[in-house]
Amino acid sequence: MSLAPFPALLPALPEIFLAIAAMILLMIGVYSRQEQSARIVSYASIVVLIITLILVGIITDGRTLTFGGAFVSDTFGLFIKTLVLIASSATILISRDYLIMHGINRFEFPVLIVLATLGMLMMVSANDLISLYLGLELQSLSLYVMAAFQRDSTRSAEAGLKYFVLGALASGLLLYGLTLVYGFSGTTNFDSLTKLFTSEHVDVPIGITIGIVFIVSGLAFKVSAVPFHMWTPDVYEGAPTPVTAFFAIAPKIAAMGLFIRIMTGPFGQLAGEWQQIIIFISIASMILGAFAAINQRNIKRLMAYSSIGHMGYALIGMAVAGQLGDTATRADGIYGMLIYLAIYLFMNLGTFTCILLMKRNSRMVENIEDLAGLSKTNPAMAAALTIFMFSMAGIPPLAGFVGKLYIFQSAIRAELFGLAIIGVLASVVGAFYYLRIVKVMYFDKPEEEFDQPVSLEMNGVIIVTGAVTLFLILFPGPLLMGAAAASAALFPG
Amino acid sequence: MIIQTLAFYLFSIITIVAAVMVISARNPVHSVLFLILAFFNSAGLFVLLGAEFLAMVMVVVYVGAVAVLFMFVVMMLDVNIAELRQGFLQYLPLGGIVGLVLLMELAVVAGGFVISPEVSERFAAPIPVPSDIANTEALGNIIYTKYVYFFQAAGIILLVAMIGAIVLTHRSREGTRKQRISNQVNRRPEDTIEIKKVSTGSGI
Question: Three-class SS string for chain A?
Answer without folding.
Answer: CCCCCCCCCHHHHHHHHHHHHHHHHHHHHHHCCHHHHHHHHHHHHHHHHHHHHHHHHHHCCCCEEECCCCEEECHHHHHHHHHHHHHHHHHHHHHHHHHHHCCCCCCHHHHHHHHHHHHHHHHHCECEHHHHHHHHHHHHHHHHHHHCCCCCCHHHHHHHHHHHHHHHHHHHHHHHHHHHHHHHHCCCEHHHHHHHHHHCCCCCCHHHHHHHHHHHHHHHHHCCCCCCCCHHHHHHHHCCHHHHHHHHHHHHHHHHHHHHHHHHCCCHHHHHHHHHHHHHHHHHHHHHHHHHCCCCCEHHHHHHHHHHHHHHHHHHHHHHHCCCCCHHHHHHHHHHHHHHHHHHHHHHHHHHHHHHCCEECCEECCEHHHHCCHHHHCHHHHHHHHHHHHHHHCCCCCHHHHHHHHHHHHHHHCCCHHHHHHHHHHHHHHHHHHHHHHHHHHHCCCCCCCCCCCCHHHHHHHHHHHHHHHHCCCCCHHHHHHHHHHHHHHCCC
